[in-house]
Amino acid sequence: MPFLGELAALGTAACWASGSLLFTIAARRTDALALNQTRITLAAIVLAVLTLFTHGVNWAPQAETRHLVLLLVSGWFGLTLGDWAYFGSFVDLGPRIATLLMALGPPMTALLALAVLDEPLGSLALAGMALTLGGVV
Hints:
It is a single chain. This protein is an all-alpha fold. The chain is 83% helix and 0% strand. The protein is globular, with a radius of gyration of 19 Å.
């Protein structure tokens, strides 16, 4: 099918935009914490049911306990604290500015990796970031 990638990109952008608008409306009606608690609870239930049906009770037989704890802590920080702040930014800044600031995550991560981990950025990576940021701006 011609232009399948382009159609997928446009569909993804439409989903992100409509999701941001809907989350803004919901966060303004309740608050960011209540919205995030509801979303996380519903997502956890759906994920648990799907995992049970697709993989059974023993869904990660090779995983060590410390790996599961790291997964749990990572999910808690990312999905609970990070999304709570994100939904709060929808209320405080509006969906347009909040989404624009979210788009700065990957280039900021790359710059931090350069400064903290001494990971160099190639010219292709820099050109890609410049192109993406130019499109966002």
